Model the fold of this input.
Amino acid sequence: MPAPRATVRRGLAAVAALPLLALAATACGYGSQAKDADAEPNVSAKGAKLSSDTVRIGYFPNLTHATALVGIHEGTIQKELGGTEVESTTFNAGPSEIEALNAGSIDIGFIGPSPSINGYSKSQGKGLRIIAGSASGGVKLVVNPDRITTLDDLKGKKIATPQLGNTQDVAFLNWISEKGWKVDAQSGKGDVSVVRSDNKVTPGAYRAGDLDGAWVPEPTASRLVSEGAKVLLDETDLWPDKKFVITNIIVSQKFLDEHPDVVEAVLKGSVATNKWINANPDEAKASANRALEKLSGKPLPEEILDPAWESIEFTDDPLARTLRTQAGHAVESGLLKEPDLQGIYDLGPLNKILKAEGLPEVADAGLGVK
Done:
Protein backbone atom coordinates (compact mmCIF):
# COMPACT_ATOMS: atom_id res chain seq x y z
CA MET A 1 0.00 0.00 0.00
CA PRO A 2 1.56 3.32 -1.01
CA ALA A 3 2.19 6.06 1.54
CA PRO A 4 -1.02 8.15 1.67
CA ARG A 5 -1.51 11.84 2.23
CA ALA A 6 -2.78 12.95 5.62
CA THR A 7 -6.45 13.42 4.82
CA VAL A 8 -8.73 12.02 7.49
CA ARG A 9 -12.48 12.42 7.37
CA ARG A 10 -14.44 12.70 10.54
CA GLY A 11 -16.82 10.01 11.50
CA LEU A 12 -19.52 8.52 13.58
CA ALA A 13 -21.22 7.46 16.76
CA ALA A 14 -24.71 6.52 17.76
CA VAL A 15 -27.16 4.68 19.92
CA ALA A 16 -27.46 2.01 22.54
CA ALA A 17 -30.19 -0.59 22.67
CA LEU A 18 -32.23 -1.17 25.82
CA PRO A 19 -30.68 -3.88 28.03
CA LEU A 20 -33.88 -5.87 27.53
CA LEU A 21 -33.17 -5.61 23.81
CA ALA A 22 -29.60 -6.83 24.00
CA LEU A 23 -30.18 -9.40 21.32
CA ALA A 24 -31.63 -6.75 19.02
CA ALA A 25 -28.79 -4.27 19.22
CA THR A 26 -27.02 -4.64 15.92
CA ALA A 27 -25.23 -2.05 13.87
CA CYS A 28 -25.76 -3.09 10.28
CA GLY A 29 -25.14 -6.81 10.27
CA TYR A 30 -26.69 -9.57 8.22
CA GLY A 31 -27.73 -12.23 10.75
CA SER A 32 -26.15 -13.34 14.00
CA GLN A 33 -23.58 -16.01 13.30
CA ALA A 34 -19.81 -15.63 13.58
CA LYS A 35 -17.39 -17.44 11.33
CA ASP A 36 -13.66 -17.59 10.87
CA ALA A 37 -12.54 -15.04 8.31
CA ASP A 38 -10.79 -16.57 5.33
CA ALA A 39 -9.48 -13.25 3.98
CA GLU A 40 -5.88 -13.65 5.08
CA PRO A 41 -3.66 -10.56 5.09
CA ASN A 42 -1.49 -9.99 2.04
CA VAL A 43 1.42 -9.42 4.46
CA SER A 44 2.51 -12.14 6.89
CA ALA A 45 3.71 -11.51 10.43
CA LYS A 46 7.39 -10.58 10.31
CA GLY A 47 9.88 -9.13 12.75
CA ALA A 48 9.81 -8.85 16.52
CA LYS A 49 6.64 -9.76 18.38
CA LEU A 50 4.95 -7.27 20.64
CA SER A 51 3.63 -8.26 24.08
CA SER A 52 1.16 -10.78 22.58
CA ASP A 53 1.74 -13.52 20.02
CA THR A 54 -1.57 -12.74 18.31
CA VAL A 55 -4.35 -10.15 18.22
CA ARG A 56 -7.84 -11.35 17.35
CA ILE A 57 -9.84 -8.79 15.39
CA GLY A 58 -13.58 -9.00 14.66
CA TYR A 59 -15.52 -7.13 12.01
CA PHE A 60 -18.48 -7.41 9.62
CA PRO A 61 -18.16 -8.34 5.92
CA ASN A 62 -19.75 -4.98 5.14
CA LEU A 63 -18.65 -1.82 3.33
CA THR A 64 -19.19 0.22 6.49
CA HIS A 65 -16.37 -1.90 7.95
CA ALA A 66 -14.03 -1.19 5.04
CA THR A 67 -11.26 0.02 7.37
CA ALA A 68 -11.01 -3.56 8.59
CA LEU A 69 -11.65 -5.11 5.16
CA VAL A 70 -8.91 -3.07 3.51
CA GLY A 71 -6.55 -2.89 6.49
CA ILE A 72 -6.52 -6.66 6.92
CA HIS A 73 -6.70 -7.61 3.23
CA GLU A 74 -3.86 -5.25 2.26
CA GLY A 75 -1.80 -6.13 5.33
CA THR A 76 -1.56 -2.54 6.59
CA ILE A 77 -2.53 -3.49 10.13
CA GLN A 78 -0.23 -6.53 10.08
CA LYS A 79 2.74 -4.35 9.05
CA GLU A 80 2.36 -2.27 12.22
CA LEU A 81 2.18 -5.40 14.39
CA GLY A 82 5.45 -6.91 13.17
CA GLY A 83 5.74 -10.46 14.48
CA THR A 84 2.42 -10.32 16.34
CA GLU A 85 -0.05 -12.11 14.09
CA VAL A 86 -3.52 -10.88 13.13
CA GLU A 87 -6.28 -13.47 13.51
CA SER A 88 -9.54 -12.19 12.04
CA THR A 89 -13.13 -13.30 12.51
CA THR A 90 -16.22 -11.95 10.78
CA PHE A 91 -19.62 -11.47 12.39
CA ASN A 92 -23.08 -10.82 11.02
CA ALA A 93 -24.47 -8.96 14.03
CA GLY A 94 -23.32 -6.80 16.90
CA PRO A 95 -24.53 -8.94 19.83
CA SER A 96 -22.50 -11.98 18.75
CA GLU A 97 -19.40 -9.81 18.39
CA ILE A 98 -19.93 -8.36 21.88
CA GLU A 99 -20.38 -11.89 23.23
CA ALA A 100 -17.10 -12.92 21.60
CA LEU A 101 -15.34 -9.91 23.11
CA ASN A 102 -16.73 -10.67 26.56
CA ALA A 103 -15.76 -14.35 26.21
CA GLY A 104 -12.20 -13.46 25.20
CA SER A 105 -12.64 -14.94 21.71
CA ILE A 106 -11.66 -11.63 20.13
CA ASP A 107 -9.62 -8.73 21.48
CA ILE A 108 -10.56 -5.82 19.23
CA GLY A 109 -13.70 -5.25 17.17
CA PHE A 110 -15.09 -3.01 14.46
CA ILE A 111 -18.72 -2.55 15.45
CA GLY A 112 -21.67 -0.16 15.44
CA PRO A 113 -22.52 2.23 18.26
CA SER A 114 -25.66 0.48 19.54
CA PRO A 115 -23.98 -2.79 20.56
CA SER A 116 -20.98 -0.80 21.81
CA ILE A 117 -23.15 1.14 24.24
CA ASN A 118 -25.21 -1.87 25.20
CA GLY A 119 -22.09 -3.94 25.87
CA TYR A 120 -20.55 -1.14 27.92
CA SER A 121 -23.73 -0.62 29.95
CA LYS A 122 -24.27 -4.33 30.64
CA SER A 123 -20.70 -4.71 31.91
CA GLN A 124 -21.16 -1.60 34.09
CA GLY A 125 -18.32 0.08 32.28
CA LYS A 126 -15.82 -2.74 32.79
CA GLY A 127 -16.00 -4.74 29.56
CA LEU A 128 -14.86 -2.53 26.71
CA ARG A 129 -13.69 0.87 25.54
CA ILE A 130 -14.26 2.71 22.27
CA ILE A 131 -10.77 3.61 21.08
CA ALA A 132 -11.42 5.14 17.64
CA GLY A 133 -13.93 5.81 14.93
CA SER A 134 -13.89 4.01 11.61
CA ALA A 135 -16.73 5.18 9.35
CA SER A 136 -19.56 7.71 9.07
CA GLY A 137 -22.75 7.83 7.04
CA GLY A 138 -23.98 5.22 4.60
CA VAL A 139 -27.64 5.18 5.72
CA LYS A 140 -30.58 6.11 3.45
CA LEU A 141 -34.34 6.11 3.30
CA VAL A 142 -35.26 4.42 0.01
CA VAL A 143 -38.83 4.03 -1.20
CA ASN A 144 -41.04 2.61 -3.93
CA PRO A 145 -41.49 5.64 -6.21
CA ASP A 146 -44.86 4.34 -7.41
CA ARG A 147 -46.22 4.56 -3.86
CA ILE A 148 -44.19 7.36 -2.25
CA THR A 149 -43.01 10.58 -3.87
CA THR A 150 -42.64 12.94 -0.88
CA LEU A 151 -41.68 12.50 2.76
CA ASP A 152 -45.28 13.22 3.82
CA ASP A 153 -46.36 10.18 1.78
CA LEU A 154 -44.72 7.89 4.36
CA LYS A 155 -47.75 8.23 6.62
CA GLY A 156 -49.71 4.99 6.48
CA LYS A 157 -46.92 3.12 4.68
CA LYS A 158 -44.78 0.12 5.66
CA ILE A 159 -41.11 1.03 6.09
CA ALA A 160 -38.42 -1.46 7.10
CA THR A 161 -35.57 -0.98 9.55
CA PRO A 162 -32.94 -3.69 10.22
CA GLN A 163 -33.90 -4.56 13.78
CA LEU A 164 -35.79 -3.33 16.84
CA GLY A 165 -33.56 -0.93 18.77
CA ASN A 166 -30.71 -0.86 16.25
CA THR A 167 -29.07 2.36 15.11
CA GLN A 168 -31.23 2.85 12.02
CA ASP A 169 -34.41 1.88 13.88
CA VAL A 170 -33.84 4.58 16.49
CA ALA A 171 -32.97 7.16 13.84
CA PHE A 172 -36.21 6.44 11.97
CA LEU A 173 -38.31 6.50 15.14
CA ASN A 174 -36.79 9.87 16.03
CA TRP A 175 -37.49 11.21 12.52
CA ILE A 176 -41.12 10.05 12.80
CA SER A 177 -41.46 11.79 16.17
CA GLU A 178 -40.07 15.03 14.76
CA LYS A 179 -42.72 14.86 12.02
CA GLY A 180 -45.34 14.86 14.79
CA TRP A 181 -46.48 11.34 13.98
CA LYS A 182 -47.05 8.62 16.57
CA VAL A 183 -45.61 5.09 16.51
CA ASP A 184 -45.38 2.55 19.31
CA ALA A 185 -41.65 1.86 19.49
CA GLN A 186 -42.00 -1.77 20.57
CA SER A 187 -44.63 -2.94 18.08
CA GLY A 188 -43.82 -0.52 15.27
CA LYS A 189 -47.52 0.22 14.83
CA GLY A 190 -48.85 3.72 14.34
CA ASP A 191 -49.00 6.49 11.77
CA VAL A 192 -46.18 4.66 9.97
CA SER A 193 -45.77 0.88 10.15
CA VAL A 194 -42.14 0.25 11.15
CA VAL A 195 -41.31 -3.27 9.99
CA ARG A 196 -38.21 -4.83 11.57
CA SER A 197 -36.68 -6.83 8.73
CA ASP A 198 -33.24 -8.42 8.46
CA ASN A 199 -31.17 -6.76 5.74
CA LYS A 200 -30.87 -10.13 3.98
CA VAL A 201 -34.66 -10.38 3.76
CA THR A 202 -35.59 -6.78 2.98
CA PRO A 203 -34.81 -6.78 -0.79
CA GLY A 204 -36.99 -9.84 -1.35
CA ALA A 205 -39.82 -8.35 0.70
CA TYR A 206 -39.54 -5.14 -1.29
CA ARG A 207 -39.68 -7.04 -4.59
CA ALA A 208 -42.78 -8.90 -3.39
CA GLY A 209 -44.51 -5.61 -2.61
CA ASP A 210 -44.66 -6.27 1.14
CA LEU A 211 -42.68 -3.10 1.92
CA ASP A 212 -43.08 0.46 0.69
CA GLY A 213 -39.53 1.41 1.58
CA ALA A 214 -36.70 1.04 4.08
CA TRP A 215 -34.40 3.10 6.32
CA VAL A 216 -31.26 1.00 5.95
CA PRO A 217 -27.46 1.07 5.77
CA GLU A 218 -25.30 0.37 2.75
CA PRO A 219 -25.09 -1.72 0.70
CA THR A 220 -28.74 -2.68 1.36
CA ALA A 221 -29.92 0.80 0.34
CA SER A 222 -28.12 0.63 -3.01
CA ARG A 223 -29.28 -2.96 -3.50
CA LEU A 224 -32.88 -1.73 -3.16
CA VAL A 225 -32.19 1.09 -5.60
CA SER A 226 -30.97 -1.53 -8.08
CA GLU A 227 -34.41 -3.14 -7.63
CA GLY A 228 -36.14 0.10 -8.64
CA ALA A 229 -36.35 1.97 -5.34
CA LYS A 230 -35.57 5.69 -5.08
CA VAL A 231 -33.46 7.47 -2.44
CA LEU A 232 -35.85 9.87 -0.68
CA LEU A 233 -33.54 10.93 2.17
CA ASP A 234 -29.87 10.50 3.06
CA GLU A 235 -29.49 10.45 6.85
CA THR A 236 -26.32 12.54 6.60
CA ASP A 237 -28.55 15.50 5.71
CA LEU A 238 -30.09 15.32 9.20
CA TRP A 239 -26.78 15.77 11.05
CA PRO A 240 -24.60 18.81 11.71
CA ASP A 241 -21.64 18.80 9.32
CA LYS A 242 -23.30 15.76 7.68
CA LYS A 243 -21.42 13.41 10.03
CA PHE A 244 -22.62 10.59 12.28
CA VAL A 245 -20.98 7.40 13.46
CA ILE A 246 -21.74 4.06 11.83
CA THR A 247 -18.66 2.05 12.91
CA ASN A 248 -16.41 2.30 15.98
CA ILE A 249 -13.32 0.40 17.03
CA ILE A 250 -13.68 -1.19 20.46
CA VAL A 251 -11.26 -3.15 22.60
CA SER A 252 -11.59 -5.50 25.54
CA GLN A 253 -10.61 -3.55 28.64
CA LYS A 254 -8.58 -6.56 29.80
CA PHE A 255 -6.64 -6.68 26.54
CA LEU A 256 -6.05 -2.93 26.60
CA ASP A 257 -4.66 -3.16 30.13
CA GLU A 258 -2.41 -6.13 29.35
CA HIS A 259 -1.28 -5.29 25.79
CA PRO A 260 -1.37 -1.52 25.19
CA ASP A 261 1.47 -1.81 22.65
CA VAL A 262 -0.60 -4.19 20.51
CA VAL A 263 -3.64 -1.91 20.71
CA GLU A 264 -1.51 1.05 19.65
CA ALA A 265 -0.13 -0.91 16.69
CA VAL A 266 -3.64 -1.83 15.51
CA LEU A 267 -4.66 1.82 15.80
CA LYS A 268 -1.62 2.87 13.77
CA GLY A 269 -2.69 0.41 11.10
CA SER A 270 -6.25 1.74 11.18
CA VAL A 271 -5.10 5.35 10.86
CA ALA A 272 -2.81 4.42 7.96
CA THR A 273 -5.63 2.50 6.28
CA ASN A 274 -8.08 5.39 6.55
CA LYS A 275 -5.51 7.78 5.12
CA TRP A 276 -4.94 5.47 2.17
CA ILE A 277 -8.66 4.95 1.61
CA ASN A 278 -9.31 8.69 1.54
CA ALA A 279 -6.32 9.39 -0.72
CA ASN A 280 -7.04 6.47 -3.08
CA PRO A 281 -10.83 5.91 -3.05
CA ASP A 282 -11.06 3.91 -6.28
CA GLU A 283 -8.22 1.56 -5.36
CA ALA A 284 -9.60 1.21 -1.84
CA LYS A 285 -13.09 0.44 -3.12
CA ALA A 286 -11.68 -2.31 -5.32
CA SER A 287 -9.64 -3.68 -2.41
CA ALA A 288 -12.71 -3.78 -0.15
CA ASN A 289 -14.69 -5.57 -2.84
CA ARG A 290 -11.94 -8.16 -3.32
CA ALA A 291 -11.98 -8.79 0.42
CA LEU A 292 -15.77 -9.19 0.32
CA GLU A 293 -15.46 -11.61 -2.58
CA LYS A 294 -12.94 -13.66 -0.62
CA LEU A 295 -15.24 -13.74 2.38
CA SER A 296 -18.60 -14.26 0.70
CA GLY A 297 -17.69 -15.91 -2.60
CA LYS A 298 -18.86 -13.06 -4.82
CA PRO A 299 -18.13 -9.34 -5.15
CA LEU A 300 -20.71 -6.58 -5.13
CA PRO A 301 -21.75 -5.54 -8.65
CA GLU A 302 -20.75 -2.03 -9.70
CA GLU A 303 -24.31 -0.68 -9.66
CA ILE A 304 -24.47 -1.46 -5.93
CA LEU A 305 -20.82 -0.97 -4.97
CA ASP A 306 -20.30 2.48 -6.48
CA PRO A 307 -23.20 4.42 -4.88
CA ALA A 308 -22.79 2.57 -1.59
CA TRP A 309 -19.10 3.44 -1.37
CA GLU A 310 -19.73 7.07 -2.31
CA SER A 311 -22.04 7.57 0.69
CA ILE A 312 -19.60 6.34 3.35
CA GLU A 313 -16.82 8.43 4.91
CA PHE A 314 -13.85 6.81 6.61
CA THR A 315 -12.55 8.49 9.70
CA ASP A 316 -10.55 8.12 12.88
CA ASP A 317 -12.89 10.42 14.82
CA PRO A 318 -15.65 8.57 16.72
CA LEU A 319 -17.78 11.74 16.74
CA ALA A 320 -18.64 11.24 20.38
CA ARG A 321 -21.20 14.04 20.41
CA THR A 322 -23.36 12.12 17.98
CA LEU A 323 -23.29 9.15 20.33
CA ARG A 324 -24.75 11.39 23.04
CA THR A 325 -27.43 12.60 20.64
CA GLN A 326 -28.44 9.17 19.40
CA ALA A 327 -28.53 7.76 22.91
CA GLY A 328 -30.90 10.61 23.77
CA HIS A 329 -33.10 9.67 20.81
CA ALA A 330 -33.28 6.10 22.10
CA VAL A 331 -34.25 7.28 25.59
CA GLU A 332 -36.94 9.57 24.18
CA SER A 333 -38.40 6.75 22.09
CA GLY A 334 -38.64 4.48 25.13
CA LEU A 335 -36.08 1.96 23.88
CA LEU A 336 -33.35 2.89 26.33
CA LYS A 337 -33.08 3.75 29.98
CA GLU A 338 -30.73 6.64 30.59
CA PRO A 339 -27.25 5.06 30.39
CA ASP A 340 -24.14 6.08 32.27
CA LEU A 341 -21.62 6.41 29.45
CA GLN A 342 -18.83 8.04 31.41
CA GLY A 343 -15.61 6.24 30.51
CA ILE A 344 -16.86 4.56 27.34
CA TYR A 345 -14.06 6.26 25.36
CA ASP A 346 -10.33 5.89 25.78
CA LEU A 347 -8.92 8.03 22.99
CA GLY A 348 -5.49 8.56 24.54
CA PRO A 349 -3.66 6.02 22.34
CA LEU A 350 -5.36 7.33 19.18
CA ASN A 351 -4.62 10.97 19.97
CA LYS A 352 -0.98 10.09 20.61
CA ILE A 353 -0.79 8.61 17.11
CA LEU A 354 -2.65 11.52 15.48
CA LYS A 355 -0.44 14.08 17.21
CA ALA A 356 2.73 12.28 16.10
CA GLU A 357 1.47 12.45 12.50
CA GLY A 358 0.55 16.11 12.73
CA LEU A 359 -3.16 15.40 12.57
CA PRO A 360 -5.90 16.99 14.71
CA GLU A 361 -6.71 15.16 17.92
CA VAL A 362 -10.29 13.94 18.45
CA ALA A 363 -12.64 14.60 21.36
CA ASP A 364 -14.61 12.26 23.62
CA ALA A 365 -17.48 14.71 24.42
CA GLY A 366 -16.74 14.36 28.12
CA LEU A 367 -17.28 10.59 28.04
CA GLY A 368 -13.63 9.58 28.33
CA VAL A 369 -11.82 7.68 31.05
CA LYS A 370 -10.83 9.83 34.01
Q: What stands out?
A: The first helix runs from residue 66 to 73. Residues 1-35 have pLDDT under 50 and may be disordered. The CA atoms of residues 341 and 367 lie 6 Å apart. The two ends are 37 Å apart (CA to CA).
